[in-house]
Amino acid sequence: MHRYDYIIIGGGIAGTTAAETIRKADSNARIAILEEEKHVLYSRVFLPKYCRNEITREKVMLRSLGDYEKERLDLYTYEKAESIDFVKREVKALSGNIFSYGKLLIASGGSVRASDFEKEFADKIFRLQTLEDAERIRDLVLRNKVNKVLIVGGGFIALEFAGIFLKFEIETSLVIKSKYFWEDYISEAGGVDIAEIFKKKHIEYFTDDEIFKIERTEESGIVVITRNRKKIYADVIALAIGITRNIELGRRVLNIGEGIKVDENLKVKTLPGMEEAGREVYAAGDVIEYFDAFSGKERIIGNWNHSFLTGHIAGTNMAGGSLKFHSTASYSIKSLDQVFTFLGDTDKKWADETIVRRLPLENKYTELFIKNGKLIGAVLINTFQLKPLLTKWIEEGRDLAQIKSALADSDSNLEIL
Ligand SMILES: Cc1cc2nc3c(=O)[nH]c(=O)nc-3n(C[C@H](O)[C@H](O)[C@H](O)COP(=O)(O)OP(=O)(O)OC[C@H]3O[C@@H](n4cnc5c(N)ncnc54)[C@H](O)[C@@H]3O)c2cc1C
Asked: How far is the C-alpha of 280 from the C-alpha of 277, rounded, in Å?
């Protein structure tokens, strides 16, 4: 039995930040991080750059073993937490090790959704979530092992994949289930603009379709037959079908939706009758489901700053502080020579209405998400400079009733409204 004051499950940015924050507040505490992967903290955000060969592996690694030693943080790598006994306050690992805790943080992040075809075509399917995934992709693109790739799925990771393959002049196709890209978020006009970007970059683009069957070809490639009976030949498939949260550890005790539900101090919410078992348990990072006071609903989000911030707040509170989490999430990437940004809550179904500001000739697209007369989110394509202003509007709860028609004028200057 390994005894610790604090056990952190997950050594990503949320877990590591929490551990380091606890250490600052409590110099004597015994702190351990259990991490399923074999690495010290590295940046998932830098993985696309690493795949494009724009940075070295050293740049991707954010900590060294010496950093953990210096902070007296016991990092257990290859140590997957298998179950938690919330009553005894013990974590059992797959290795058989048992860790007892005074306080526990679950910062287990997410994993790429499984695909039905993965087992049979493991050699042909590529993901982009871990450092190992990035090494596999680098091997593919830097050694000229592929001429043609099919990306499956929409979202930011699909755009990252496209950016990587285009950099190496690899012929790229993309198939998405929805009628247009980001259909759950943006209006059709935005989908048209994104389709135009793909066209300019010579990305073959299939919408409202999905893989029905995969067959191997004699030339050691594959042919994907889609639901709409299209045949797409490729050397490999790049899977970008989103992530699911690693929530299994909390079942039967914690209140779990799509993520682990937390209050504003990032303490976990429990099932009725489990309050005592859930005491001294916190969660942070991609795995949490929290109430977003700006949009008025519970949300899960996945982004680096959110994970860093919630890690910091959870760590502070575990060590006796009382910080509250309120933040406007944002995710921004540069790919295909465009800057794509999601700000706040961009759930089209939740918003009462959206306002599209579109300047196709300038490649600019902005969509504003409004709920109860207030801004709750925005999608910005090449209009990143609006982010500070719109963040302010979201956080101030600015009433947009008076300026709605001006907002709808794509040429209006938001700074002076
Ligand atoms: C390719 C890529 C590009 C990205 N680009 C951006 C970007 O540009 N901007 C942005 O804001 N965000 C970006 N993100 C998202 C961002 O990286 C994540 O939101 C962030 O890393 C989440 O941090 P986390 O610590 O919550 O979770 P994770 O990074 O997922 O860390 C959780 C850790 O927990 C471990 N774990 C899980 N279960 C267990 C268990 N049972 N026992 C032990 N360990 C366990 C996992 O191995 C993992 O290391 C990107 C992500 C990827 C994959």
From this structure: 8
> Is 9's C-beta closer than 6 angstroms to any atom of ligand 1?
yes
Predicted local distance difference test score (pLDDT) of residue 114: 86
Query: 90-104 b/e with 16+ CB inside 10 Å = b?
Result: bbebeeeeebebebb
Q: CATH homologous superfamily of domain 2-44+57-111+244-318? A: FAD/NAD(P)-binding domain (3.50.50.60)
Q: Atom 35 (ligand 1): residue with closest C-alpha?
A: 10
Q: 235 phi and psi, to 5 degrees?
A: -85, -40
Give yes or no for residue 219 having a pLDDT over 90: no
Please tell me if the CB atom of residue 50 comes closer than 6 angstroms to any atom of ligand 1. no
What number of residues does the chain have? 417
* 14 Cβ below 6 A of ligand 1: yes
Question: How do residues 11-63 score in pLDDT, each as one tens digit?
Answer: 999 999 999 999 999 999 999 999 999 999 999 999 999 999 999 999 999 99
**CATH 3.30.390.30 domain position(s) in the chain:** 337-416
Number of the ligand 1 atom closest to the C-alpha atom of 16: 25
What span, in angstroms and rounded, lies between the C-alpha atoms of 233 and 144? 17
Tell me the CATH number of domain 337-416, given options 3.40.190.10, 3.40.50.1820, 3.30.390.30, 3.40.50.2000.
Answer: 3.30.390.30
CATH 3.40.80.10 for domain 125-239, yes or no, is no
